[in-house]
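Appendix B, example 12.
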Amino acid sequence: MREKRLEIGTAVILVLLPIAVILSENTVYTLFRLDAAYSQLIVDAAMFMVAFVLNHYWIKVKVDPFNTKKPVSQFLNMIPGIVMLAITGKFSPLGTAKNVILAIATVLMVAIAEEFVFRGLLIPVMYKLVNQHLFIALIISAFGFGSIHLINLLNHFPMYLIGAQVFMAAATGMLYGALYVKTHNLTLPIILHVITDLPIFFPRPGTANAASELTGNQRPLMVIFMFGLFLISCLVAYLQIRKTKVDY
């Protein structure tokens, strides 16, 4: 019973850690009088270091940062994630950033930190917690990843937009999780995560508020579409991992 409680506590900490980091972003640059432009880079670097230390001294999960075996098979397992990026327009031309180096460094740090926490650590922890049901572990990890966007409730984002963000993140989380489980290569979901976030850090003029300008009829359709993508991602992820054996 004590071991089960520790596993539950670990899972809760891993899910709440990114949310705590986001909430601390404004405090960081106010307290230390840093340029606000550097705040996200700093707090995500801090999240990675905290998660790394927790894993080293407490969680003790083996994370596979890179794997050179069966490169063709690894690439084939990336295809669902690549298709998802294409469907959601992530390969569209990018805009510009005021500080290109800072933007690139930030998008890399965000991807590394979040993939390390949600794929590298949370999936193995949840796998043990749910009695070695890998697909359930992936779903919980994916919704933990999606739950980050609930923080936008504090920013007074419309509910339909938050719902769409949660389902979209959960959909990509399923595919990134299945990719990591199949390839034992955290670098691959990190690459896809970077591509996912590039439009945020390199926005094109006129695209920043496009989703918030949807009409009343379009809003529920957007949420339904994202929920549909999530269900499809669940099916694809299940087919990818159904015969996969892991040793967590």
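The chain has one domain: 2-241. The chain is about 70% helix and 0% strand.
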